[in-house]
UniProtKB/TrEMBL annotation:
It comes from Leucosporidium creatinivorum. GO terms for molecular function: glucosamine-6-phosphate deaminase activity; identical protein binding; isomerase activity. This is Glucosamine-6-phosphate isomerase. Residues 10-219 form the Glucosamine/galactosamine-6-phosphate isomerase domain. Its EC number is 3.5.99.6. PANTHER family: GLUCOSAMINE-6-PHOSPHATE ISOMERASE. InterPro entries: Glc/Gal-6P_isomerase, Glucosamine6P_isomerase, Glucosamine6P_isomerase_CS, NagB/RpiA_transferase-like. Pfam families: Glucosamine_iso. HAMAP family: GlcN6P_deamin (MF_01241). NCBIfam families: nagB (TIGR00502).
Length: 284
């Protein structure tokens, strides 16, 4: 797992947005693989990344016409046109501003009559397009990934999940601070669904995430901080801002900054594509 530390949430957005754009632009559609498959999150952390991607599309430097997306999660029982549904979030902040074909976007249906079937179908659809190329995610204050709350199985798949009280509290800000209005359940991809992606990138910003980031980075793989599962992923990257590093040891921060310095030197010498190739072949 790599950790890249940028100065601010805006810099995180620029870095991750530019990286995703590069990967999408490098993708060459073929008969066997016509679409680049991107996993996406909601939340405030990825907003600067979405803004950057929108900017690049509007400038003509990026197109989503060969991209298919799968979102991580959705509340159960919230109508999709509710202002706080993840359907509304994605449409308002991203899909309505880019050139993606609406039928290439997928979000779990939290109002499906048969929720178990909805989850199984989601896994099937991901497989049918050849799996996810890059899954971008955020992280909850308790270290959760998507809605894989503390204690979630690290081999979990897309399923119905009861939300942790901490998550209900954290998300109440979107529901006029009315705790009773926050849904108690969600549909979410599992940790194993995320781990199946060829590459995973998490955006982690703000002091509120500092404890979770330290637990995930410094304390090994632990099912109580589910994002820590990414230590065993062959190609995972966490991009955080300075505020999110506040609970990390100085030595840890310096270590990852030094790695990045060497990485930059290597990329300058051999080029990013060559470095990525070594990662695909398992050297990471
Ligand atoms: N299910 C979402 C997560 O996918 C997201 O990462 C988290 C953090 O959101 P924010 O980025 O707003 O802190 O919120 C929710 O719980």
């Amino acid at each position: 797992m790599r950790l890249s530390i940028r100065d601010s949430p805006e810099q995180v957005g620029l870095y991750v947005g530019d990286y995703l754009a590069k990967r999408i632009n490098e993708f060459k559609p073929s008969a066997e693989k016509p679409l680049f498959v991107l996993g996406l999150p909601t939340g405030s952390s990825p907003l600067p990344t979405y803004q950057r991607l929108v900017e690049l599309v509007q400038r003509g430097d990026l197109s989503f016409k060969n991209v298919v997306t799968f979102n991580m999660d959705e509340y159960v029982g919230l109508p999709r046109d509710h202002p706080e549904s993840y359907h509304t979030f994605m449409y308002t902040n991203f899909f309505s501003k880019i050139d993606i074909q609406p039928n290439n976007t997928h979000i779990l249906d939290g109002e499906a009559e048969d929720l178990l079937h909805e989850c199984a179908e989601y896994e099937r659809k991901i497989k049918s397009v050849g799996g996810i190329d890059i899954f971008m995610g955020g992280m909850g204050e308790d270290g959760h990934l998507a809605f894989n709350e503390p204690g979630s199985s690290l081999v979990s798949r897309t399923r119905i999940k009861t939300l942790a009280y901490d998550t209900i509290l954290a998300n109440a800000r979107f529901f006029n601070n009315d705790l009773s209005a926050v849904p108690r359940m969600a549909l979410t991809v599992g940790i194993a669904t995320l781990m199946d992606a060829r590459e995973v990138i998490l955006v982690v910003t703000g002091q509120k995430k500092a404890m979770a980031l330290a637990q995930c980075i410094e304390n090994g793989i632990n099912h109580f901080w589910t994002a820590s599962a990414l230590h065993s992923h062959p190609w995972s990257l966490l991009v955080c801002d300075e505020d999110a590093t506040l609970e990390l040891r100085v030595k840890t921060v310096r270590y990852f900054k030094s790695i990045e310095k060497v990485q930059d030197e290597v990329e300058a010498k051999y080029g990013g594509a060559a470095v990525r190739k070594t990662r695909v072949n398992g050297v990471h």
